[in-house]
Automatic annotation (TrEMBL):
Pathway: Amino-acid degradation; L-lysine degradation via saccharopine pathway; glutaryl-CoA from L-lysine: step 6/6. Residues 70-144 form the Lipoyl-binding domain. This is Dihydrolipoyllysine-residue succinyltransferase component of 2-oxoglutarate dehydrogenase complex, mitochondrial. It comes from Pogonophryne albipinna. Residues 164-194 have a biased composition (Pro residues). The lineage of its organism: Eukaryota, Metazoa, Chordata, Craniata, Vertebrata.
Length: 459
């Protein structure tokens, strides 16, 4: 039996080799030898037809049970500083999801983690309630693999048979009377119409007053209602509140102010904004000028870039500049970090700001994007703020607050002129930074923004 199988395999190989080499005679002889041993079948997969030299191959099919496999999706691993989060479901039991479609979102202390579906299928069970706490590796939901019919397509199919079914016959109308009563030959007397009734308006012109009065009463009741609602604070908002209170309890915060003449930087932006947009495909804003000026001032005043290590009672000075840019989102304030700003130019900074802003709007910021930072810039001017005192973002030692640009009268060369002015505020930890360093730092920023040529000349 084994030798016969070897012979069958050798003849089959000769036939294929002859076909490849174009030798028809050799191919016919090898095929004939193979047909003579057609009674031997290997694994019931390759069979020879005694009437021809064409082989029949049986193909395998994927089982339905494998395609409809049920899997359990677990919570993804969190960052080192995050231990748990709250689940907010985007889908419900029975919903059909596509591969990589977001099923739920886990809100942590620092950011939100989206959990996508590993495959297309139907959600069978939600293992955690909405708002429940989970840790890394906990089971979230079960999914049956396989594309199920969408809900929108099921409704028309369900309605189609109902539309095709003829409506049930309605009740037969009552039969007409068999006989007609006598027709009166005389009409009853009509009473006379009073004179005052002739002045009334037509029926179509009469408007009901009762519904209007009820609507007015309901509107008055709504305006006078005193209602209130309660909404649970999300984890990010709780963490922000905790960190801000810790900053007030830990740092000896002090704020110094100055004003910046935005005439030169505004003129430069107005002159080159179109060419800049055409070349770099991004808009030239004011934030890049302040970020670059802050990096320039931090190199001049390293204590502002340092931090106090309370555990070891040491001062840590950094030779790099990582600036956190505060961004307001619907869930709270986030501070993504632009790293190594000391080696960037205006274009690099604008691209980094646009990338982080886009990720913040799409809720795609990771913990790594907000971890670290040696200095923070908060721009309340985008909301029209005129003046304010920012709070330090621990464990940093200082924060710069930008505000709105407003035309104000200022003294220029002994004359009063109208200039676009911005108030800036520097809040710093007085335990580490003295007033001299803080004021010098803020004046460096003022000089670099008012005259950007100082950055090129390293003045």
């Amino acid at each position: 039996m084994l030798s016969h199988s070897r012979c069958l395999t050798r003849n089959f190989g000769r036939s294929l080799s002859a076909i490849r080499q174009g030798n028809n005679g050799l191919a016919r002889r090898a095929t004939a030898a193979l047909s003579a041993s057609h009674s031997i079948t290997l694994n019931n997969n390759v069979k020879s037809d005694p009437r021809s030299s064409v082989f029949q191959i049986q193909y395998f099919r994927t089982s339905v049970a494998h395609r409809e496999e049920v899997v359990t999706v677990n919570t993804p691993a969190f960052a080192e500083s995050v231990t748990e989060g709250d689940v907010r479901w985007e889908k419900a039991v029975g919903d059909t999801v596509a591969e990589d479609e977001v099923v739920c979102e886990i809100e942590t202390d620092k950011t939100s983690v989206q959990v996508p579906s590993p495959a297309a299928g139907v959600i069978l069970e939600l293992l955690v309630p909405d708002g429940g706490k989970v840790e890394g590796g906990n089971a979230l939901f079960t999914l049956r693999k396989g594309a199920g019919p969408p809900k929108a397509a099921e409704a028309p199919k369900a309605e189609a048979p109902a539309a095709a079914t003829p409506p049930p016959p309605s009740a037969a109308p009552p039969p007409p009377p068999s006989a007609v009563g006598p027709i009166p030959t005389t009409m009853p007397p009509v009473p006379p119409v009073p004179a005052h009734a002739m002045d009334t308006k037509p029926v179509s012109a009469i408007k009901p007053t009762a519904p209007a009065a009820l609507a007015a009463q309901a509107e008055g009741a709504t305006k006078g209602a005193r209602t209130e609602s309660r909404v649970k604070m999300n984890r990010m908002r709780l963490r922000i509140a905790q960190r801000l209170k810790e900053a007030q309890n830990t740092c000896a915060m002090l704020t110094t102010f100055n004003e910046v003449d935005m005439s030169n930087i505004s003129e430069m932006r107005k002159t080159y904004k179109d060419a800049y947009l055409k070349k770099h495909n991004i808009k030239l804003g004011f934030m890049s000028a302040f970020v670059k000026a802050a990096a320039y001032a931090l190199a001049d005043q390293p204590s502002v870039n340092g931090v106090i290590d309370d555990t070891t009672k040491e001062i840590v000075y950094r030779d790099y500049v990582d600036i956190s840019v505060a961004v307001a989102t619907p869930k709270g304030l986030v501070v993504p970090v632009i790293r190594n700003v000391e080696g960037m130019n205006f274009t690099d900074i604008e691209k980094a700001i646009n990338m982080l802003g886009e990720k913040a709007r799409k809720n795609e910021l990771a913990v790594e994007d907000m971890d670290g930072g040696t200095f923070t810039i908060s721009n309340g001017g985008v909301f029209g703020s005129m003046f304010g005192t920012p709070i330090i973002n621990p464990p940093q030692s200082a924060i710069l607050g930008m505000h709105g640009i407003f035309d104000r009268p200022v003294a220029i060369g002994g004359k009063v002129e109208i200039r676009p002015m911005m108030y800036v505020a520097l809040t710093y930890d007085h335990r580490l930074i003295d007033g001299r360093e803080a004021v010098t730092f803020l004046r460096k920023i003022k000089s670099a923004v008012e005259d950007p040529r100082m950055l090129l000349l390293d003045m």
